[in-house]
Amino acid sequence: MFREMRRIKQELPLEEAKSLLMKNKRGVLSFNGEDDYPYAIPINFLYDEEENKIYFHGAKTGYKLDCIKKNNKACFVTYGDQELSENGWSYYLKSLVAFGEIEIIEDRDLAAKKLIELASRYFPSMEEINEVMERSFKNALVYSLNIQHMTCKRVHEK
């Protein structure tokens, strides 16, 4: 169902992909949008290795949710871990592409738990997280990308 990576020599093991998802804090989530145009948004995320899911949050209304309801298949990209190459001016970096289906988390207790875990990656204290949760959780939607296929590679940018 999913294509093999064309430059197979650049492919990294699945453990490298998981490591990149644990380290990185931002990526781009893409959907099938209206009129066959792709819709991609930069977004914060939480990777749950045990569940093999990537969690996100957003508003309960809007274009992103409309795309999900129309077609819940999505693609997520993140990259980083750059290191200076031997030539001293170009870089090696790792990139990850994950494909899967979006699931809206209907269970509000689970949604709150995952949103707190996600927020813990970005906020400096639980006090601030609790303040935001109290103020905004009722308007938040939590959803996950249930990963069906994932690749990671190391590229030389030159």
Automatic annotation (TrEMBL):
Among Gene3D superfamilies, the record links this protein to: Electron Transport, Fmn-binding Protein, Chain A (2.30.110.10)
The protein depicted here goes by the name Pyridoxamine 5'-phosphate oxidase family protein
Lineage, top-rank taxon, reads Bacteria
Q: Which SUPFAM superfamilies match?
A: FMN-binding split barrel
